[in-house]
Automatic annotation (TrEMBL):
One Pfam match: Abhydrolase_1
MF (Gene Ontology): hydrolase activity
Protein name per UniProt: Alpha/beta fold family hydrolase
Organism: Streptococcus ferus
SUPFAM superfamilies: alpha/beta-Hydrolases
Keyword Hydrolase annotated: yes
Domain called AB hydrolase-1: residue spans: 146-334
Family of this protein: Belongs to the AB hydrolase superfamily. FUS2 hydrolase family.
Bilayer-crossing regions: none
Amino acid sequence: MFYHYTGNVQFDLQINRVVSYFGNNSKVEADLRTILPHLDSIPAWNRLWKALAFKRKKSQDYDIASFYFFAAGFYLLEDNPDRELIQKERLACFYQWYDIFPYERHDVPFDDFYLPAVKLINPNAQKTLLVFAGYDSCLEELMVWVKDFRGTAYNIIIFDGPGQGNALFGGSHFMMNFERPVSAVLDYFELDRVVAWGISWGGYFVMRAAAFEKRIDKVIAMDIFYQGMDALIEGMPLLKGLALQMLLFLKRERILNRLISREMTKDLDLSWKMTRGFQLTNTKTPFALLENLSRHSMKGLGASINQEVLLLAAKNDQYVPIKRLKQLEKELHHAGKVVSRVFTDETGGNHHCQAGETHLAVKEIKAFLNEN
């Protein structure tokens, strides 16, 4: 279930994301009672989750500590002195406890750096599930997301692409043409047929990759993600969103920079999207960032996707308008098969990437792959 802990939609999404793995764990519930009244700003968020993470590390609750370190580092930018420390502690705690799958860790050569990857092993598996995320995840988080694929016919390869997760610490940056890192991973593992599962912004990346990389046999978009600008303007008043798009189209750089900078002082969610985007893309101004992210678009790609496709959409997704589902279904006219599932208030899973209820999405994915 998705819980509205603070009333701040961005904070609530991230809290559900962090704690949902632990169910009704009494330690986690006690920790939440301690910090929820004080989560009123990003500095408070970072400070409180960091303190809890070290507390749980000291008590050897390494699984809880690793997720708390993930939360503590979530809003930290490159110039924050805590960033490297929290990354180091998160990884140490995570691999201290992780035992869901036997696994191998790999560094995949790509351009002039390496993409971190893991291979999760199911005995006697003959197929491969390739998994990657988008704007703000990391491969360790996804190693937990796929826990229900134990005992299936799939080995699972998860990687951080350029600008994602652990790869962001290696100096790489977000790229639109995601078929390139996907191809590098397939080459490295000598794979000629995979199912590709993209999560969040990865819902665009997986479509983009499938349009050009035909070693992808089936495509899973969790959630659908049509274009980068949607994530910025979803939830904005209609006229304000239209104005931003028009200013970008007309290249009114100075006006757009002033407008966005002013809005960032009033809107925590927008401020985080923009500052995170500067870091991911190595841009410095709102105009430069929006120009960069506007290239992340499904426009013109649908006809090149001939694989079987599963589209997962959430009615109350705070980043992706539900209207994009019909548009995608229409544009995927060469796909081998298109299966769509919409999560609502009634079904549950009606928030971005089924936050707090990811098992509902996994159930649909396993049905799509005939792995129930």
